[in-house]
């Protein structure tokens, strides 16, 4: 699955089944957006005016429902990512990619949670995260090769920024929904090559990073 692609191809349902399906997705989008990926499936079923068993017939797992609910966010993220990857200037491309990432992250608590975690039992979510990490590697490497981003910044540092930004979004989404922009630009100044100072510890390895993202899923 490419980022933003539809996750399933299915046979059309009868009209009443399609209506229940659509109500479930609409309710899930509202609930995941306001409460995150651990939102109550029972509440989603109640909001959609269906039995919990009906929810599971349409979406056998929480991740199936989550991916269906997040589809507009995934499409939005994909479009912004493609635009950023096409920016000719390495620094501007790097900035544009992160701006798009954090803007979409800020607009939906479910997507915020989804970015921060790994779900190793789901091939679809693994492909999404692998593709996103590959894109970050690409824009970062291009900016480092051009000498505009400090050479010791690694993928793990960007994921750390996603985590810290996600926590700040949780705290400020009501009182100051644009606070993430200031934080991002403060960090971008820290990433510039001409402002680099030695760091006291190395970045996490890819395995450490992956394990940390899985741990977030397991502890929620």
Molecular structure report:
With 220 residues, the chain is mainly α. It has a domain of 150 residues: Tetracycline Repressor, domain 2 (Orthogonal Bundle). The chain is 70% helix and 0% strand. The protein is built from 10 helices and no strands. α4 packs parallel to α7, α6 runs antiparallel to α8 and α8 packs antiparallel against α9. The chain is elongated and about 60 Å long. The two termini are 26 Å apart. The model has no long low-confidence stretch (mean pLDDT 88).
The CATH topology of the domain at 70-219: Tetracycline Repressor, domain 2
CATH level 1 name of the domain at 70-219: Mainly Alpha
How far the N terminus sits from the C terminus, by CA atoms, comes to 26 Å
| SS elements, strand count | 0
The oligomerization state is: single chain
Specify the biggest β-sheet.
none
Structural class: mainly alpha
User: C-alpha Rg, in Å?
Assistant: 19 Å
- Helix and strand pattern: HHHHHHHHHH
CATH architecture designation of the domain at 70-219: Orthogonal Bundle
Q: Helix fraction?
A: 55-70%
Shape: elongated
Number of helices: 10
Mean pLDDT: 88
Regions with pLDDT < 50 over 5+ consecutive residues?
A: none
CATH superfamily of the domain at 70-219: Tetracycline Repressor, domain 2
Beta-strand content bin: under 5%
Give the tags.
mainly alpha; 220 residues; Tetracycline Repressor, domain 2
Summarize the topology.
Blueprint: H1 15-35, H2 41-48, H3 52-58, H4 62-85, H5 90-106, H6 109-116, H7 123-145, H8 155-172, H9 179-191, H10 206-219
Helix pairs in contact: 1-2, 1-4, 4-5, 4-7, 5-7, 5-9, 6-8, 8-9
């Amino acid at each position: 699955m490419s980022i933003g692609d539809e996750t399933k191809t299915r046979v059309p349902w009868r009209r009443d089944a399609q209506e229940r399906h659509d109500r479930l997705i609409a309710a899930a989008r509202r609930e995941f957006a306001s409460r995150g990926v651990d939102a109550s499936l029972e509440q989603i079923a109640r909001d959609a005016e269906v039995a919990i068993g009906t929810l599971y017939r349409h979406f056998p797992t929480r991740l199936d429902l989550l991916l269906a609910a997040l589809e507009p966010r995934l499409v939005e993220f994909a479009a912004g990512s493609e635009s950023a990857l096409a920016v000719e200037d390495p620094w501007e491309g790097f900035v544009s990619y992160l701006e798009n990432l954090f803007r979409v992250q800020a607009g939906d608590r479910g997507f915020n949670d989804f970015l921060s975690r790994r779900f190793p039992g789901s091939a679809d979510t693994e492909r999404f995260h692998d593709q996103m990490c590959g894109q970050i590697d690409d824009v970062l490497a291009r900016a480092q090769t051009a000498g505009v981003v400090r050479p010791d910044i690694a993928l793990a540092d960007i994921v750390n920024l996603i985590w810290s930004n996600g926590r700040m979004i949780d705290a400020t989404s009501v009182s100051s929904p644009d606070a993430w922009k200031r934080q991002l630009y403060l960090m971008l100044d820290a990433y510039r090559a001409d402002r680099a100072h030695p760091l006291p510890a190395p970045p996490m390895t890819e395995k450490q990073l992956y394990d940390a993202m899985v741990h977030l899923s397991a502890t929620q």
